[in-house]
């Protein structure tokens, strides 16, 4: 089988999570600079078979698109152009950053470690991917 890869897209950094090959467990993979995201995905898909991209969809409380959606839509267009055979779906990512931060607290990470924004992005991508897996 192949993996599902989730993306928590950000203006500066992007968190990435993947499933195992059986698509049962979501795990944080890494955080990359957003400007190097497409090249990272090209390299990753050369090594691992990816069946689906799950991209976080930021929404406001009233269910309308958040301001960051303006940045995400052009990225999705590039993603679809670069990987025409890999479908892209969107998953509501409301509260993932807050949940990621709470996960860090619950895991016993010290205050200094919780300031690591890259780790928050990676955990957020994992939460997006878990949300997708639960919805399947």
TrEMBL record:
Q: What class of enzyme is it?
A: hydrolase
Give the matching InterPro entries.
RNaseH-like_sf, YqgF, YqgF/RNaseH-like_dom, YqgF/RNaseH-like_dom_sf
Q: Per its record, what are the GO molecular function terms? A: hydrolase activity, acting on ester bonds; nuclease activity
Q: Where in the cell is it found?
A: Cytoplasm
Please give the biological process terms from Gene Ontology that the record holds.
rRNA 5'-end processing
**Pfam families tied to this protein:** RuvX (PF03652)
Show where the YqgF/RNase H-like domain sits. Answer: 2-100
Q: Which domain of life is it from?
A: Bacteria
Q: Per the UniProt record, which EC number(s) apply here?
A: 3.1.-.-
Which keywords accompany this UniProt record?
Cytoplasm, Hydrolase, Nuclease, Ribosome biogenesis
- Does the entry feature the keyword Hydrolase, yes or no? yes
**Which CDD domains does the entry link to?**
YqgF (cd16964)
Cellular component terms (Gene Ontology): cytosol
User: Where would you say this protein principally sits, based on its record?
Assistant: cytoplasm
Job of this protein = Could be a nuclease involved in processing of the 5'-end of pre-16S rRNA.
Q: What PANTHER family does the annotation carry?
A: POLYNUCLEOTIDYL TRANSFERASE, RIBONUCLEASE H-LIKE SUPERFAMILY PROTEIN
Query: To which protein family does this belong?
Result: Belongs to the YqgF HJR family.
Q: What is this protein called?
A: Putative pre-16S rRNA nuclease
**Species lineage:** Bacteria, Pseudomonadati, Bacteroidota, Flavobacteriia, Flavobacteriales
Q: Write the gene name.
A: ruvX
């Amino acid at each position: 089988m192949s993996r599902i890869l989730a993306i928590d897209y950000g203006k500066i950094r992007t968190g990435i999570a993947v499933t195992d090959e059986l698509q049962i467990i979501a795990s944080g993979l890494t955080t990359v600079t957003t400007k190097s995201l497409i090249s990272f995905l090209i390299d990753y898909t050369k090594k691992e078979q990816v069946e689906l991209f799950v991209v976080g969809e930021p929404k406001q409380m009233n269910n309308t698109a958040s301001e960051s959606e303006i940045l995400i839509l052009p990225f999705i267009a590039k993603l679809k152009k670069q990987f025409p055979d890999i479908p892209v779906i969107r998953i509501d990512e409301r509260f993932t950053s807050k949940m990621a931060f709470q996960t860090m607290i619950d895991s016993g990470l010290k205050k200094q470690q919780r300031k690591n924004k890259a780790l928050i992005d990676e955990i957020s991508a994992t939460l997006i991917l878990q949300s997708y897996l639960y919805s399947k």
